[in-house]
Design goal:
Blueprint (H helix, E strand, L loop, with lengths): L1 E4 L4 H16 L10 E4 L3 E5 L8 H8 L7 H21 L2 E2 L8 E4 L2 E4 L6 E2 L12 H8 L24 H4 L7 H6 L38 H4 L4
Antiparallel strand pairs: 1-3, 2-3, 4-7, 5-6
Helix pairs in contact: 1-4
């Protein structure tokens, strides 16, 4: 179970509803499935399978103190799994945006990708999305009324308006991904930012992402955020 505190903020509700929607579209053996959800004005509850073997981060920490004779073979397997999951996402016109050890869960000696909080669409190609899953339609139809008197406002919040689902959601034309990546933040919280104003986790990011004018976000984003 992933629990996200949205603090009654409409901006956070939109942000994490988009994460839930993108996650619901993914159906691949190397991606943790979204099984069900529950939205309230303060918290989002996202149900997935239980993974009790930890993450690649936990395994790498173990390797620091214990020799594993199968380490090289396992690394090749893990990389193959990660590339398989990413290739599937890219075929749908979606980038993950935060590929790192902590977001690679272990299941029966294999890797499954998780945490799609920075994922978004970079392509409007609908050929791969032959059918919108029922779970995705439920998320689109779900209405969450914010309870907070204030809202963080940014020019870069994720939205499915950027996606092939825009016609389903009946939403306006989106801003370009490049403007989303470079937009400045204005809020009552002294320049508070949503995570996607700097794509990926900074310790894992390549120099390209840290430039004042980073490259447009697309499938190559996943190699940039995990290249260090």
């Amino acid at each position: 179970m992933k629990i996200i505190d949205v603090h009654g903020s409409m901006e956070f509700i939109k942000r994490f509803k988009t994460e839930s929607l993108i996650w619901s579209l993914l159906n691949h053996e190397r991606i943790a499935p979204l099984l069900d959800f529950k939205f309230t004005d303060n918290s989002f509850f996202l149900l997935t399978e239980k993974y009790s073997s930890g993450s690649l981060f936990d395994l790498v920490k173990q390797w620091e103190s214990a020799n594993d004779p199968q380490r090289l073979h396992r690394i090749v397997t893990f990389l193959t799994d990660i590339c398989s999951g990413l290739q599937y996402m890219h075929s749908l016109g979606i980038y993950h945006g935060d590929v790192k050890l902590e977001n690679c869960l272990l299941s029966n000696g294999r890797v499954v990708l998780c945490d799609f909080g920075m994922a978004n669409f970079y392509s409007r190609d609908t050929k791969a999305l032959i059918k919108i899953p029922d779970l995705s339609r439920r998320i689109l139809d779900e209405t969450v009324v914010p309870s907070s008197p204030y809202n963080i406002s940014t020019g870069s919040s994720h939205s499915y308006r950027n996606s092939p689902l825009s016609s389903v959601a009946n939403t306006p034309t989106p801003r370009s991904p490049r403007s989303s990546a470079t937009a400045s933040t204005t809020s009552s919280y002294n320049s508070a930012r949503l995570p996607d104003t700097h794509i990926g986790s900074l310790p894992y990011s390549s120099p390209e992402i840290l430039r004042p004018n980073p490259p447009a976000l697309d499938h190559l984003t996943d190699s940039h955020v995990s290249s260090s």
